[in-house]
Amino acid sequence: QYCVVELRGGGGGAEAFFFFFKGAEVYTNGSARHMNGTELTRMKEVEFEKNPSEPMGVTLKLNDKQRCTVARILHGGMIHRQGSLHEGDEIAEINGKSVTNQTVDQLQKILKETNGVVTMKIVPNLQGRSRACEMYMRAQFDYDPTKDDLIPCKEAGLKFQTGDIIQIINKQDPNWWQGRVESSAADFAGLIPSPELQEWRVASKSKAREGSQSCSPFGKKTKCKGKYLAKHSSIFDQLDVISYEEVVQLPAFKRKTLVLIGAPGVGRRHIKNALLTKYPEKFSYPAPHTTRTQRKDEENGQEYYFISNEAMTKSISGNELLEYGSFQGNMFGTKIETIQKIHEQGRIALVDVEPQTLKGLRTADFAPLVVFIAPTITAPQMENLQMIQKESDAIRTTYGHFFDVVLVNNDVDESVKGVEEAMERATSTPQWVPVSWVY
Predict the structure, then answer these.
(1) Domains in the chain with CATH codes
(2) How does pLDDT run across 231-250, given as a tens digit for each residue?
(3) Which residues form a coiled coil (predicted)?
């Protein structure tokens, strides 16, 4: 037995509620109420018109009772905008036809090929409605869903590149978040691998290369204690695994440090010296400390600070150096204090460091603008230029997610102008910065 209550809106859509009274056999998803020993199931009929050129923005799955349910609603898609379906809703019929014994692929195909008015009978999921989520992440890797064998629906995936700002809208699924590229004109969201999934993937590939067997959290019956959580895995102690970086947008502000990164021989020193000569009141280079013997024509603190081996060793053990190394038996290092003094003078510290130093530099204390200097693409590719290009590619592959600006050094004057323009943009337009700079 059942009764029907139909509600019809002025916009042409319609909803009808079917209340089924059943005895021994209960058709419910947990929303039933007891009425004198009889189960009451609330079934809802929804009707909407599907545009053949627009995806519905919904994915389906079979629950543990092999019933068709809504797996996820893509933010901004047609279903999300009209609000007739929710995650967890159980679909009983599509256009008057039962969906019983249909596979997920068959159901998705039916929805994809259906045009015009679509009518569904559903058992609404009244529990666990997902809450709105809004955060922003900077992508630290390139992603193409069409090449991802793990994604549940390639068509629902979101393609992005390193450096893209992604607005995270839903992260209820531990493996697949919903997001949209902030600069994109598209209003709807797509699926992206969650940080844990991406980190597990990278770590698994590394383990596979080492010949070790890793456990997959995606096998149907596979259980692996600890799974792929970075904080519980020794893999992540050995790898600098990258996925996303949470960011916030700040109003324009002054950068304290200009960082030039590039392969040896790419021309960083020429660009640095040109900037220091052109803007002596704006930029200042932090003179390194060294254990080398001071020459007669050298002034302490001008090009170098001359210190003893004991003082250098103490500075290293006290973590006072941004970076350090040795050359011809002498130690060289840049003190953090030297950079801080430049900031206190109201100048921008101009540094050309090794790329592995970037992680420690990207803090609110240094507030850096990181500029990567790429080798020229116009000069003949002689052997030395090929070596520079090869090393440059390696640096970009490993550290590219830290770069704010990439400049090709075809001409020093042009590169200097490019740096000037980048600094101007950074101080005159809103900036996306790591959330750790603010909180």
Answers:
(1) 2-123 (2.30.42.10), 135-248 (2.30.30.40), 251-282+347-439 (3.40.50.300), 287-345 (3.30.63.10)
(2) 333 333 344 678 999 999 99
(3) none
